[in-house]
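Below is a filled-in request sheet from our internal design queue. Each sheet records the structural input a requester submitted and the sequence that came back. We keep these sheets so that new team members can see what a complete request looks like end to end.

REQUESTER: design group, bay 2
PRIORITY: normal
MODE: inverse folding
CHAIN LENGTH: 426
BACKBONE (tokenized):
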């Protein structure tokens, strides 16, 4: 697969949010008192990982060699009720038009369209509470604290789909790059051989009245592009978001196929990739018209052209800029600009009881949190964990699922034997 040095439009990204710091177990030191009150502070929360669209980022290049991004960890709490510090949030800048997918099943999780659009890619772990928080009338000297929660981590697949109003579509060498460099500030390489342009380029066109639109110069398409021939299929995705297609047909005698055939091939490739591309506003433009001796030259015939241009002499270019502006204007009215799309993650609260071998496992953030205490070998910590599980209704859920007294139950790092409700120590 061709990947140029500058432009990368697909990549994998691993995100890991920061872990929360642990709560502290500490006791005040007082003169003549062996153990003062509990004063262990809370752990700091970890830092989230956000993906943020930014117009200064042009491609996914930054992730090709370094696909890992992580939020900072929270630090542990300490004595004298000192809380840990929170981990730094990681803001990962991606180009506008980045589609975020689940790496495993390919589900689209977010489409970050405009600068500033953001997606919470990995949620940080919260900090554990220190033992100072567990002081109560019944419990004068709690000697346990909560552990920090682990930050979420996962693999994502990023895909860039450029945002342009107009896509230039045509065979290699028809003059796409010459045209975009004439009508905008974009300066892709121009040369007299096919596949000069190996990556898409965007250019902003401004008309006399100050109307602006974005044009994409997309690498040339050839027959079979939609099945992977040439470079075409890799770049067809950059045509997807264009509101208007400007199809360039080479009128020069040196063209690899007569105009009507070029048009037929291009139309078929677009349709094979995505049939609805043919429903877009489309302008069919004869290119390199200065190389045709006479407008009635049979070489130019056969294709139904909207207009002819020469990007070298400039003939017809101003007209084309105006026609494209009209088409963009009406397409923008018909089709409002794309907006951010983000799948709001299901709340990770709650829990689920599942059979595991001869026993049971309870999964879910709330249940795991309930038992994430620093030292479950201690009676007071274990009693606290049991109280929390009861409050969550885990005992009842296990009973409903059919758990029998004596069945092993695993929750996070804790394994215990299930006891029917009346047996549970209160
Ligand atoms: N005579 C003439 N030559 C042109 C015109 N437009 C482009 N050319 C020439 O045609 C050749 C190809 O032009 P490019 O702009 O590189 O074509 P392209 O469509 O971007 O080609 P790829 O990037 O390879 O797909 C260059 O030698 C240009 O100078 C034109 O209107 N008239
Ligand atoms: Mg080119």
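RETURNED SEQUENCE:
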């Amino acid at each position: 697969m061709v990947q140029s040095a500058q432009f990368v439009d697909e990549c994998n990204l691993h995100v890991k949010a920061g872990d929360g710091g642990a709560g502290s177990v500490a006791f005040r030191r007082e003169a003549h008192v062996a153990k003062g009150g509990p004063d262990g502070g809370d752990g700091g929360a970890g830092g989230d990982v956000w993906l943020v669209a930014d117009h200064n980022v042009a491609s996914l290049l930054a992730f090709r060699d370094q696909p890992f991004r992580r939020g900072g960890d929270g630090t542990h709490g300490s004595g004298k009720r000192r809380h840990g510090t929170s981990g730094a949030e990681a803001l990962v800048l991606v180009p506008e038009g980045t589609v975020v997918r689940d790496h495993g099943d390919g589900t689209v999780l977010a489409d970050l369209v405009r600068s500033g659009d953001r997606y919470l890619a990995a949620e940080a772990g919260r900090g554990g509470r220190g033992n100072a928080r567990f002081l109560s009338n019944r419990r004068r000297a709690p000697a346990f604290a909560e552990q920090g929660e682990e930050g979420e981590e996962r693999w994502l697949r990023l895909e860039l789909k450029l945002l342009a109003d107009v896509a230039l579509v045509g065979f290699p060498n028809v003059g796409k790059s010459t045209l975009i460099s004439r009508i905008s500030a974009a300066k892709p390489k121009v040369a007299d051989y096919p596949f000069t342009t190996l990556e898409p380029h965007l250019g902003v066109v401004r008309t006399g009245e100050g109307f602006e639109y974005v044009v994409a110069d997309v690498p040339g398409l050839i027959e079979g592009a939609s099945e992977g021939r040439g470079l075409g299929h890799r770049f067809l995705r950059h045509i997807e978001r264009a509101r208007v297609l400007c199809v360039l047909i080479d009128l020069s005698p040196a063209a690899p196929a007569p105009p009507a055939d070029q048009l037929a091939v291009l139309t078929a490739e677009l349709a094979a990739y995505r049939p609805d591309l043919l429903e877009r506003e489309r302008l069919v433009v004869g290119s390199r018209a200065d190389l045709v001796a006479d407008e009635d030259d049979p070489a130019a015939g056969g294709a139904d052209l909207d207009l002819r241009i020469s990007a070298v002499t400039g003939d017809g270019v101003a007209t084309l800029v105006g026609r494209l502006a009209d088409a963009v204007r009406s397409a923008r009215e018909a089709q409002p600009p794309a907006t951010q799309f983000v799948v709001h993650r299901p709340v990770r609260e709650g829990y689920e009881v599942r059979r595991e071998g001869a026993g049971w496992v309870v999964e879910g953030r709330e249940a795991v949190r309930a038992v994430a205490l620093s030292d479950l070998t201690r009676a007071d910590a274990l009693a606290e964990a049991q109280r929390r599980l009861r409050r969550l209704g885990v005992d009842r859920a296990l009973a409903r699922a059919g758990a029998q007294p004596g069945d092993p139950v695993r929750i996070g790092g804790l394994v215990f034997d299930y006891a029917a409700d009346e047996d549970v120590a209160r």
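SHEET NOTES:
- The chain has a mean pLDDT of 88.
- The two ends are 65 Å apart (CA to CA).
FILED BY: M.R.
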